[in-house]
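Co-fold these.
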Amino acid sequence: MNYVTVRDARIRYHETGDPSAPPVVLLHGIGRSLEDWSAQHDLLSADHRVIAIDMPGFGLSQRHPESATLTSLSDGVWQTLETLGETRPVHLMGNSLGGAVSMQMLVDDPSRVSTLTLVNSAGFGKEVTFALRMLAVPGMGRYLLSHIDGRTAPRVERTLYADRAMVTPERIAMAIKIAHQPDFAAVYLEIARALGGFRGIASQWRSQLLPRVARHGKPTLIVWGDRDHILPVSHLAAARAAFPAATWHLFEGAGHMPQIERPAEFAQLVRPLLARVSA
Amino acid sequence: MTPYEFGGRTAVLTGAASGIGEQLAYGLAARGSDLVLVDVDPTRLKEVAARIDRVHPGRSVQMLVADLSDRSAVEGVATQVLAEHPSIGLLVNNAGMALGGRFDQVTVDEFEKVMNVNFRAPFLLTHALLPALKATPGAHLVNVSSLFGLIAPAGQSAYSASKFALRGLSQVLQSELADDGIGVTTVHPGGIRTRIAENAVVGSGVPADEVEPNRKIFDKLLTYPPEKAARQILDAVAKRKARLLIASSAKMPDLLARLLPVGHARIIRAATSARVSRRTPQEVAR
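Predicted complex below.
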């Protein structure tokens, strides 16, 4: 894994493929890391520069001083790409929170986005796992996030996949390592509170962001796993309604992260989208 | 049915932050169960979880903060439990709330809230978690009804209605789930020293000068230690008992209610000094 310094924060990234090939940027979900995209590097890097980033304050990246919001994360990812010398239009792929950040990046700088792939993305409804809603209960958020250990981490990991075999000791160990980063709880709670509360994901930012994304008409692919416990599959219908021109796919028997639960199928789905614009 | 095995299984417990529920949490941890603790009070719930962590560091304790009067919160709890625990050994529907005042002194909203916490939440949670219970060989369900699920004294319309309803559901499930090897225990505690009187909502139409005296009378009846009640419940679970009466304050009225299905009401009224006002706030004002 490599690190770059972006505005005094050490940002972790993983890059594969020919640096001159068209760039693909991969963004993870809340409290997660670039490991959630690990399986896609081998599948996509033959003809792309594939860059996965631990967003500022997530994974093993340090935080930026400002409170985490969609805009601050969007800025952080754009600045990281500049630091990596990548200023061409990118194929953005975001899972969960990363999907919302991708949409914000598109709105903030549409000329630098060629396509958008939203994977079980936030932004399409208020329903979200009870575990996240509970973080909004006064006093609970910090307590729960500071008690991620060998007993609690496997439980959280289990909610992410349809197939429990995905919950490997390595993934559990990584989740614990991430949770023990100094600013993990603070950044997690900042973005969680910026986007919602105990009643679920707030509607204001969603209703503002989606029409602005739709207006740009970028080629868009929306995918969902039908056994997502974090953001329910009913959000796929809302996403299709918000972006009627987008192509879409439902993974049967997959959870919140089809990009690692069904890597080959996922890569096959995104290749035509990437090829269409690269050509 | 074989005795219930507590060790290594997950128990889901509502109303876990105080009273009988808190003691059940300690008892279940001591008997080797992992726990999912549900309560509306995050501060007390954290204290209970922290205490279990200290005394039984090997147990997994998960907290879910939820207001069980809210249907979406109950559904949220169920979804969360199912996502993390495909099989659970024990579900204890313990959370409950009290409401004082004669039927015409309580509002429809107040009545409904009691039904939602005491009856709808157990029914929703049991319905949603049944697949996870069936996935565990020899699972068990506990519904904490009440003495007022056996007798129906004046001034307890919503509470009694909810506890009779829960008893009815629980007894039906006891028959239906036997085929799946799931035991069901319906618990009728008498006066247990818990926070239920302290936390009781008083009907909006109850004259103000009667609230405190009535609360005190109710409170005085609550004498049985909750840790003893919890121990009896867990022993009843182990033995798969269908029905458990706790404290003589439950046993005597139960006997009376069975001997005198109608006439027991007068005896109960005479035996307790609890009185229910016939006055309305308007009359008090005059």
